[in-house]
Design a protein that fits this description.
The protein is α/β, with parallel strands linked by helices and 187 residues long. The chain has 6 helices and 12 strands. The model has no long low-confidence stretch (mean pLDDT 95). It binds glutamine.
Length: 187
């Protein structure tokens, strides 16, 4: 199995490092050719507006949509990646998103960079909590009936799953905690 990490922009290198630590083959994805040889995809954090432009200009966006629809292609979006998976994005300058998960995400809802924070989260099936970073994170404001909330923080869902799609508003890779990646690999 090869796990693709969308590598147009953002902190894709940290995700590749975690996959390496887990002994999972990874590949940076920047084109349709790259996408064709991966079995799963991680969309990293960064600027969702920037990632969105590359996604749609390269044709990779349409192919991700097709594979999710026709093959249940597993995709994990973190932070900007979670924004891009959403059906509806609110907040200032919302990017064109993939629109794959039935949720509304408010971009930069916590404020500016200075309002970034760390938190510990309870994850189902895990005894010890996870320490994660919320970096200019979005807030998931609404989820549809098929979206399962796996973790919440201060009343808002922060890790959600809909079929083969997983979205988290935080960065697990900053502290190199591998458990969310393991969860994604188990989908
Ligand atoms: N604020 C960024 C955006 O809206 C997301 C931040 C992140 O991925 N850490 O694109």
């Amino acid at each position: 199995m090869t796990v693709g990490v969308l590598a147009f922009h953002g902190d894709f290198a940290e995700h590749i490092q975690i996959l390496e630590d887990l002994n999972v083959k990874s590949k940076e994805v920047r084109s349709l050719q790259d996408l064709a040889v991966v079995h799963r995809l991680i969309i990293p954090g960064g600027e969702s507006t920037v990632i969105s432009q590359f996604l749609f200009a390269s044709g990779v966006a349409e192919e991700i949509r097709r594979r999710v629809r026709e093959e249940n292609f597993p995709v994990y979006g973190t932070c900007a990646g979670a924004i891009l998976l959403a059906k509806r994005v609110t907040g200032k300058n919302p990017p064109r998103a993939l629109g794959l998960m039935d949720m509304t995400v408010n971009r930069n809802a916590y404020g500016t960079q200075r309002e970034s924070f760390e938190a510990t989260l309870k994850i189902p099936g895990e005894k010890t909590p996870l320490s994660v970073a919320f970096i200019r994170a979005p807030v998931i404001e609404r989820v549809g009936p098929r979206v399962e909330v796996l973790a919440s923080h201060k009343g808002h869902p922060v890790l959600v799953q809909e079929g083969s799609l997983l979205a988290g508003t935080f960065h697990p890779e900053v502290r190199a905690d591998k458990r969310i990646h393991e969860l994604f690999l188990s989908l």
